[in-house]
Amino acid sequence: MGYYLDIHTVEAFLKVAELSSFTLAAESLCITQAGVTIKIQRLEKILGQPLFHRTPRNVYLSQEGKSFLPKARALLDAHFIAIRSINMANENKEINIGISDHVIDHQFMFILTQLRQRYSDILIKVIVDGSSSILQQFENKKIDIAIITQDGDKKGGEYLRQESYGWYGAINMMAEIKKLPLITLKESCRLRKLIIDLLLEHGKDWYDSFQGGGLNAILAATKMGLGIAPLPLGLLSPVDRLELIDVTERFNLPKIPSASVVVYDNCLDLCSRELLRELVSLIKQDEKQPLTA
């Protein structure tokens, strides 16, 4: 009797190959690390070849694993296409995606457009808010997919990219200031809390010049010269970069640490997991592309 490839085993193989980690693959698939290990061992037994080289610190594909990779992707794609073609319930399916307002840059809009085009039979709803609010809605099961900057109290999630920050002011910003005119989002903003701690730690005198509103309001206030704003670099469009300058060195401001952007999901059915996989793939692919004017 021949062996048959289990689709969940193939999915586990692809996830380990993508993340180079059994632990991260387990977190992404919402199963135990032991469960992932068993699936990979079963797959290697069926194929009669080692698919990964394992060291105490690294996991990477063997030559046989590299050869099997495109075939595994094709198999999983065919599986999802078959499921979607017969699952008429997808016509009324709804998926809620929550995204941190520090993550939803202009490139991300293109990704969402691509996602909606590819999954036109699914009602995709997008909610943009602070990371703390998005995480709370996710934990209350109001959001299926949460994309946020990593919160110190919330571990896990699948890593997507690293977000860098800088201090920005208007081109015609005054050369000297006695107190730092700070522009930030509302009190609950994770970045605001981090910034205030940094300023206090480095003995910088500051005051709230402009607070609240969305990131568009923050950008407008900064361009008008109302103060200095800590901004995620990915948020700035080519036009923004012509109207704003990095003032970190001019005012001897502390470097803002970067933050990890991660995704959490409550996706249990095959259709939702397929959409999630496509979304993650688009984000990681976009991270490798340079910003275009």
UniProtKB/TrEMBL annotation:
Matching InterPro entries: LTTR, LysR_HTH_N, LysR_subst-bd, WH-like_DNA-bd_sf, WH_DNA-bd_sf
Keywords of the record: DNA-binding, Transcription, Transcription regulation
A Pfam family assignment: HTH_1
Ranges in coiled-coil conformation: none
SUPFAM superfamilies in the cross-refs: Periplasmic binding protein-like II, Winged helix' DNA-binding domain
Family: Belongs to the LysR transcriptional regulatory family.
Name of protein: LysR family transcriptional regulator
Organism name: Serratia plymuthica
